[in-house]
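> forwarded from #structure-qc
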């Protein structure tokens, strides 16, 4: 239903128009200026190469066996037995003093072959390898090997196997290295429950056990005083304290099994969450492509809380500020260059012809996408919503093309603000580059903005633009030059029409009249005076002032 026209006198109308202009200026000042918002959505967690653990979880829930899970992520590999191995796990690289203990009798042997029985309790080892235990003190020659008896050996926590202590030669022999030497299978008892939740399906745990066993063999240093680290530099290892019946059952069920490729144990990298697709090794690290570490679709990792990260919303100014030089201060666009695995290799940010490239690491760091140094999205998407500059003033009912960018964001819509609330004008259809064009037939001045479902969960004020609409006004003059007629659209009964003539100092107001019910107006002049004339129409606060094209009264 059309709102009835407001009828006010010209002076009041001028005052009201001024107040409205001030209010609109204040509103526009509070809205982000360039009309652009960037939506950064992260996905995945980890390097992305090899087996996605949440993907394995999802496959197991669907009934896949561990063999099927492994075949999904390690293309062309096969299962085979591996000979028994011992693993040396670095627990501490440089301790000023080592405290080894057990709740039962245990032993220590040194580099000369001397072996000493130790009573239950704590044995303290100094940097000079003097051992104090049960009130006795003995000077031994490194390396020292502590082994448990009826109870396991402990170094802060209990461990299977033995503990080997050697001097840290990089510290002039005044610090102690502590290494846990343990069988490969017992090592896995302490790895699998640290790398994958034990309550997950058994088939997923079996896949983890095979991947961890294979990785442990290929990641061994092969020389020096230890083989693997006890943390994320190799695999997270917690010893007996972290063992669980479910994880140990998975290790036992796959005992000795490793993945092979062309007769060699495969380097079975794994990680938490892919976000929908894993990555090929050469797309993440330098080096030649490895045939069994290919990029594969991974839809079943959607169970992960990091399948999609909470979006980050940034205005044009905020994005430019966070990225810093040499990026433009207020970029209007950002385009992701992706590698063969579909992951961001470069983000090109720019305004017009000025562009600046940023690596994924720079983007993650400068935009604050990481919760910590080790919990970052494996990949990210940058969506752009941007309205192009609107026409300064549109005419009532004319075709108006509203253009802009809506790239990388699902279901964008164009909205207008009516009666204090936003309503959808229409859905936006974008081309391959994310550009769009919407044809409007504006009936009054309004605010316009782009919105999308991903933005509705945010309390961020979206950038908007003000579209000014003026009435369509025509003017004709009678051949005798004394009668001026015209029409105003929309038909606004009582709207003010002012006739003006162009003089030496600009346009000068002459006569006034109002718009009739038909939308027409007429102004009669007592005398004919040559020159250029126009009319200025003021309807109400919904419209800008309308101005007709000039007409000429000839001499």
């Amino acid at each position: 239903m059309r709102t009835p026209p407001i009828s006010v006198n010209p002076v009041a109308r001028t005052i009201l128009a001024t107040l409205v202009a001030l209010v609109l200026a204040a509103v526009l000042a509070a809205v982000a200026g360039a009309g652009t918002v960037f939506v950064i959505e992260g996905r995945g967690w980890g390097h992305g190469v090899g087996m996605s653990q949440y993907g394995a979880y999802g496959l197991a829930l669907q009934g896949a066996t561990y063999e099927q899970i492994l075949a999904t992520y390690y293309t062309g590999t096969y299962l085979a037995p591996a000979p028994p191995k011992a693993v040396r796990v670095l627990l501490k690289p440089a301790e000023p003093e080592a405290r080894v203990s057990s709740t039962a009798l245990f032993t220590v042997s040194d580099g000369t072959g001397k072996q000493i029985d130790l009573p239950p309790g704590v044995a303290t080892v100094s940097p000079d390898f003097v051992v104090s235990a049960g009130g006795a003190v003995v000077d031994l020659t490194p390396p020292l090997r502590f082994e448990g008896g009826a109870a396991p050996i402990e170094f802060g926590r209990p461990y299977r196997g033995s503990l080997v202590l050697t001097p840290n030669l990089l510290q002039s022999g005044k610090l102690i290295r502590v290494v846990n030497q343990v069988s490969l299978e017992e090592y896995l008892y302490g790895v699998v429950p640290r790398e994958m939740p034990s309550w997950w399906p058994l088939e997923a745990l079996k896949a983890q056990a095979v991947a961890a066993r294979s990785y442990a063999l290929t990641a061994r240093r092969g020389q020096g005083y230890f083989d693997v680290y006890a943390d994320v530099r190799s695999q997270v290892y917690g010893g007996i304290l972290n063992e669980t019946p479910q994880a140990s059952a998975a290790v036992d069920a796959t005992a000795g099994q490793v993945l092979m490729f062309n007769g060699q144990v495969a380097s079975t990298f794994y990680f938490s969450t892919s976000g929908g697709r894993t990555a090929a090794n050469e797309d993440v690290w330098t080096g030649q492509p490895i045939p069994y570490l290919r990029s594969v679709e991974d839809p079943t990792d959607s169970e992960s809380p990091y399948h999609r990260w909470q979006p980050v919303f940034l205005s044009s100014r905020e994005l430019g500020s966070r990225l810093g030089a040499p990026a433009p201060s207020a970029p209007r666009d950002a385009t992701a260059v992706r590698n063969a695995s579909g992951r961001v290799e470069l983000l090109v940010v720019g305004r017009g012809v000025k562009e600046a490239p940023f690596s994924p690491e720079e983007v993650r760091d400068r935009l604050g996408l990481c919760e910590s140094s080790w919990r970052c999205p494996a990949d990210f998407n940058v969506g752009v919503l941007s309205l192009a500059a609107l026409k300064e003033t549109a005419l009532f009912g004319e075709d108006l093309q509203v253009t802009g960018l809506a790239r990388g964001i699902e279901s964008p819509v164009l909205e207008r603000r009516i009666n204090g609330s936003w309503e959808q004008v229409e859905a936006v259809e974008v081309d391959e580059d994310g550009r769009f064009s919407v044809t409007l037939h504006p009936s009054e001045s309004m605010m316009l903005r782009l919105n999308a479902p991903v933005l509705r969960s945010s309390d961020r004020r979206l950038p908007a633009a003000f579209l000014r609409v003026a009435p369509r006004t025509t003017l004709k003059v009678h051949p005798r030059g004394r009668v001026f007629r015209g029409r105003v659209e929309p038909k606004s009964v009582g709207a003010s029409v002012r006739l003006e003539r162009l003089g030496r100092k600009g346009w000068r107001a002459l006569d006034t009249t109002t718009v009739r019910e038909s939308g027409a107006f007429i102004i009669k002049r007592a005398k004919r005076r040559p020159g250029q004339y126009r009319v200025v129409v003021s309807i109400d606060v919904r419209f800008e002032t309308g101005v007709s094209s000039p007409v000429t009264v000839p001499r």
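QC bot note: The chain is about 15% helix and 35% strand. The two ends are 48 Å apart (CA to CA).
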